[in-house]
Amino acid sequence: MEVVPLDTAAEVATLAADTIEAVVAARPSAVLGLATGSTPLLTYAELVRRHEHGSAPSYAQVRCFNLDEYVGLPPGHPQSYRATIARELTDALGIAPDRVHGPDPEEAGLPTAGERYEAAIAAAGGIDLQVLGIGTDGHLAFNEPGSSLASLTRIKTLTERTRQDNARFFGSLDDVPRHVLTQGLGTILRARHLLLLATGAAKAAALAAAVEGPLAASSPASVLQLHPHVSVLLDREAASGLTRTAHYREVYDAKPAWQGL
Ligand code: F6R
After folding, report:
1. Is 151 in the pocket of ligand 1 (CB under 6 A)?
2. Is residue 258 part of a domain?
């Protein structure tokens, strides 16, 4: 795992955008895995800014797979992750809607939604780069503490804490769905490169447990320790619970320029 302690959320967004662009430049038909939530928004805005400036690679051939989706929202709800990703990123990058996939939250199909999503990811050749955030309780995608480290896409129940964290996107806590469809931890491990972004002091404890704590289902993001290619980009506040920050920074500073993330 490569941990990159940076100063600000803006620096996290710049390096994340550089990394995503490098993947697309190297492989115009890249398959991107996209997280929602607040953390990647600066990165997505930076990608859109570069695209509008004309300095970005073409995204026309890119395909995207969303990390998760709420269950129980009406189709087209502005807080659905499908609508959020289109609004914040893919529409502005010129990625056609039929190239952007998400788990299907339609009620009648829920029992098979997980396996259908896994099959769609496999048919696309797998995910080249998966963008991730981390929950204050250590969740990765919506794999809450206790989730199987080998899990695949399936329906899950959100913890009260996650629903409270996400109530800011809805009118009230009661409006936050209880259920979600989420890529599993095993699904995430299949992506070729994982890019975890964490900013703000609220993430410090969960992040420290994931990076420096033991591998445990009680800390779902600790599953990243099993993946051969993980980049963790942090601002100063999110890194504040780590004990080896100076070492991580030294390693990053000493990297050969050609290596990238
Ligand atoms: C979003 C997702 C979640 C978020 C996490 C952090 O698709 O899967 O795991 O990444 O809840 O959310 P923010 O970034 O809003 O703090």
Report:
1. no
2. no
